[in-house]
Amino acid sequence: MVKHRYSFFLGCVIPNRLPQIEAATRLVVPKLDIELVEMKGASCCPAPGVIKSFDIDTWLALTARNIALSEENGLDILVLCNGCYGTLIAGVAGLKDPDTRKRVNKILKGTGHQVKGTITAKHLVEVLYMDVGKEAIEETVVNPIDARFAIHVGCHLLKPADIRPWGFVEDFMLVDELVELVGGTTVDYKLKDMCCGAGGGLRSAELEVSNDMVREKIEAMQRAKVDALVNVCNFCHLQFDVGQMQLNNQYGTDYQVPVLYYTQLLGLAQGFTPKQMGLDKHYISTKPFLEKIGMSV
């Protein structure tokens, strides 16, 4: 019998631009006794930096519909994206108020769904660290990955802290610990806690400013002599992978820090091939990193 079951919320970016993260996750989690249940008809979360800025009730009703779909599964939601997590966990918190829930359900009436406030949303980090546990993860490692990693946590995993299960922002080391479980060494670097530069519409509105934030962080990682960057947010992942390529194309730089989503790294440690983890699909080549750890795509 499967120990952990969740509704699987993919959001927009993963199915449209980063299917390799979905594929890696679907391969990795069964080894951790996790079953992912589809959320048929799920929509955009939607991102608070856009819709919420214009109309809170529309934003809340859209995320409430996604929450209702998971309630119909009878399961909490597992999320891979920090932005989606931020929206869904805020929706869960907001819908605890009976008056808000009543107002939102009035909007949802025509959709055939009603939200009850019976489930929550969990980021992959929470599921791995708090539900599965470090010991169970470590037991799946058959191929320890001996390399130096820069960790990028991302903003929406941590803030606002009062509705996050860890309840703190400073010295957040849970992702570092997850990486160390697979044999990696996590390296401190300047600007570790700085935003990737993608969120809040910045990448769409001010690409030069957005990529300049990528440049600052990547240069700090290079000075720290890391072999790769590990992230836990697909939008941050896209920002660092595409951003380095764009900087190289525009300015003739040679930024080459491979970018891995955590489940891709865990999959390598579990014995899956780099190709199965989609490491041949990235903009910045993962070949130097793979060669260092004795693998090839």
Write the layout of secondary structure elements.
Layout: E1 4-9, H1 13-17, H2 19-28, E2 34-38, H3 48-54, H4 56-73, E3 77-79, H5 82-94, H6 98-108, E4 121-123, H7 124-132, H8 134-138, E5 148-152, H9 174-181, E6 185-186, H10 202-205, H11 207-223, E7 228-231, H12 234-251, E8 259-261, H13 262-270, H14 287-292
Parallel strand pairs: 1-2, 1-3, 3-4, 5-6, 5-7, 7-8
Helix pairs in contact: 2-13, 3-4, 4-5, 4-6, 11-12
Termini separation: 34 Å
CATH topology assignment of the largest domain: Rossmann fold
Largest sheet: 4 strands, parallel
The outline comes out as globular
Any idea of the CATH class of the largest domain? Alpha Beta
Integer tally of domains? 2
In DSSP terms (H or I, runs of 4 or more residues), the helix count works out at: 14
Please give the radius of gyration in angstroms: 19 Å
Average pLDDT confidence is 95
